[in-house]
């Protein structure tokens, strides 16, 4: 099995209309293929960033009738690429949706699905309130898939702040991790690169994070800077702040090297519940 392949990340500024976002994303996916990408990753919310939750719930379709799935399936098959759509909004019930990542194989089949586990319920100080759990049902299952070159672990955006998920994926055999995102400008400036590099270093994995960028409906701003991070923590490619595509060769030998140098994935130790030292001291008196 070959140990090298080219990954491409799509960076875009999604609007509120699904058809237009599919068109833009498809154009950028073609560009990535033209640059040699064999695995193409798009951002979270590839086909819609819509602040009106009522509209989201009213218009979102289940997987069987979702308007974005057929064109992306066809595109993966036409271009003969592995295509990871960072996430689509998929109807789960009358009251909730899934924030779901799809991996399409080169034959157009759906190779894997992953529902975002951690909900972005925060107030970051950018004038907007984020309550993802009011619209989305959290996932419960970590997901991996085997590519021709490596085992892939799938995550989405806010998941990046929960290291145990990435450790579980790496210990399950993942060598490449995807974290497509729509990071806010405020949190991106403060934390984006640190978090991406930390997850790579902790796991000895490549991290591929395609991102939304620019200004969306109602003034929401996302950070951009789609990144490909090596297992030793180097940023190999950075998409900056404008829509476009970045690519880089992935060499799986770097995963083996990083894990050989620091085999932290094999050094887990059981830890008992923390105690307060002062309470122990006082009890001893």
How would you summarize the topology of this molecule?
Layout: E1 4-11, H1 18-34, E2 39-41, H2 53-59, H3 69-79, E3 82-91, E4 97-104, E5 110-115, E6 121-122, E7 130-131, E8 143-146, E9 151-154, H4 163-171, E10 176-178, H5 185-203, E11 206-209, E12 213-215, E13 221-223, E14 227-229, E15 235-238, E16 244-251, H6 253-261, H7 277-284
Parallel strand pairs: 1-2, 2-3, 9-10, 10-11
Antiparallel strand pairs: 1-16, 3-4, 4-5, 6-7, 8-9, 11-14, 12-13, 14-15
Q: From the helix content, strand content and strand pairing, which structural class follows?
A: alpha/beta
Fraction of residues in β-strands: 25-35%
Query: Reading side by side through the largest sheet, how are the strands ordered?
Result: 5-4-3-2-1-16
**Could you list the spans in which at least 5 consecutive residues all have pLDDT below 50?**
none
Give structural attributes.
285 residues, alpha/beta, Nitrilase/N-carbamoyl-D-aminoacid amidohydrolase, six-stranded mixed β-sheet, 7 helices, 28% helix
Structure description:
It is a single chain. The model has no long low-confidence stretch (mean pLDDT 95). The longest helix has 19 residues, at 185-203. The chain has helices at residues 18-34, 53-59, 69-79, 163-171, 185-203, 253-261, 277-284; strands spanning 4-11, 39-41, 82-91, 97-104, 110-115, 121-122, 130-131, 143-146, 151-154, 176-178, 206-209, 213-215, 221-223, 227-229, 235-238, 244-251. The strands form 4 sheets. The protein has a 6-stranded mixed sheet. The chain is of the alpha/beta class and 285 residues long. Helix 1 (18-34) packs parallel to helix 3 (69-79). The protein has one domain (4-284): Carbon-nitrogen hydrolase (Nitrilase/N-carbamoyl-D-aminoacid amidohydrolase), CATH 3.60.110. 28% of the residues lie in helices and 26% in strands. The radius of gyration is 19 Å and the shape is globular. The protein is built from 7 helices and 16 strands.
